[in-house]
Amino acid sequence: MQNKYLQIYKEIADQIQGGGFEPGSKLPSEHDLVERFQTSRETIRKALSQLAQNGFIQKVQGKGSIVLDARKFDFPVSGLVSFTELADMLGGNAVTEVEKLALIHPDSSLQGALQAAPDSFIWEVHRIREIDGERIIFDKDFFKKMYVDNLTEEICRGSIYDYIENELGMAISFARKEITVEAPTEEDRNYLDLEGYETVVVVKNFVYFDDASLFQYTESRHRPDKFKFVDFARRTKA
Amino acid sequence: MQNKYLQIYKEIADQIQGGGFEPGSKLPSEHDLVERFQTSRETIRKALSQLAQNGFIQKVQGKGSIVLDARKFDFPVSGLVSFTELADMLGGNAVTEVEKLALIHPDSSLQGALQAAPDSFIWEVHRIREIDGERIIFDKDFFKKMYVDNLTEEICRGSIYDYIENELGMAISFARKEITVEAPTEEDRNYLDLEGYETVVVVKNFVYFDDASLFQYTESRHRPDKFKFVDFARRTKA
DNA sequence: AAGTGGTCTAGACCACCTA
DNA sequence: AGGTGGTCTAGACCACTTC
């Protein structure tokens, strides 16, 4: 069993994605949905609120809920999808090489970024993401060891997020991203196939757990021609 | 008068920003807030839900609501803040020059982007954003004329968003952004002080109204060294 | 066991849109 | 006037954390 409002959310979301509701048409009214799902209006409204937040519908007061074209927004509806996963999805022949996997003590800048003590242990992971044989993305990850006890190359080759959420059962709650463009460092030139590009796109990622503790700091360094970031922002009401 | 839950939201948000609640400490429990604000629990929960979505607090089941460090997240809490406004905020001496303001018919690619008919009228606006005397950002905006009847250079020099939302009273509801890095066009070289940079950061913006109609397409072209994008994504529950 | 937030209910009234 | 979504209420029960 599950939350009722999430069940309703999923059922309607599936129906929209499956073409059961035409884009531009209107969803049944909240009153109708109350009857159809045999529940209270507030529960229906929670489900619709989630649908609106995730880009499936648009609620308009006095009119109804308009079905949006979900296929247009098939990208990372949640901004929490990691870019590396995105690259994997797009690239086809994606390969990850783990160049470094070490336990370190944080230097002063890392202490600030991770809010970690100087004598604490931090995992440092360097990964190269290859797409179709070209080294496109260089990921530097820093995790607090207190949260993740053992980390293997095998885990790093996959999605560390998946490992944490599914294997360790910890919920990642929110992330702050900063995107800038910088000149490549020596490291970038060694790790990436820059092909003459004199810039890299740097995505800094601060990842927090459900209890608001900072867990991870990641720097993802991209060759500029293969970089694409998609954001879907909406004004949310309660 | 106003929504009760928004009033409560604002009062608590102000208190957090003003230092009335220490980061890391806990907010009063929902039950306490019910008594303090003389309202129902669901209303308190709506206010707290907004606070959580906007990065002021983090709710943890069974424990309480943790106050986050709002000063760390002082940037575009809503992803809908326009980059130009951001640049204005940061830059100090920001100047906007309107290079073009014309009514056009959309070409085929614009017809697709704006979902507009070939014989409809579209405003085309070119604006250069100067910061401290350097031409840093080149904005190309396309608006459907049916929504905005008269547009002046004066309006374009300020924030077109403000004009639409406050003067015209239309609510911008959500936006989709795409960020890529491209080689500069001739136009970019003419309009911007590129100073040898061989890339520009291109932010494409699709802006929708409350009723889900697409209204505006913007391309914001940035000199790479001055570009910074900040995103704050959170997993939201109802 | 007590306290916290998470879900759910049944009903009320309001604001907005369409007719 | 009737339908729609937006807000608000008072109460219930559940899940999780802390003691």
UniProtKB/TrEMBL annotation, chains A, B:
InterPro entries: Bact_HTH_transcr_reg (IPR050679), Chorismate_lyase_/UTRA_dom_sf (IPR028978), TreR (IPR012770), Tscrpt_reg_HTH_GntR (IPR000524), UTRA (IPR011663), WH-like_DNA-bd_sf (IPR036388), WH_DNA-bd_sf (IPR036390). Keywords: DNA-binding, Repressor, Transcription, Transcription regulation. GO terms for molecular function: DNA binding; DNA-binding transcription factor activity. It comes from the Bacteria. Residues 2-70 form the HTH gntR-type domain. One of its GO terms (biological process) is negative regulation of DNA-templated transcription. This is Trehalose operon repressor.
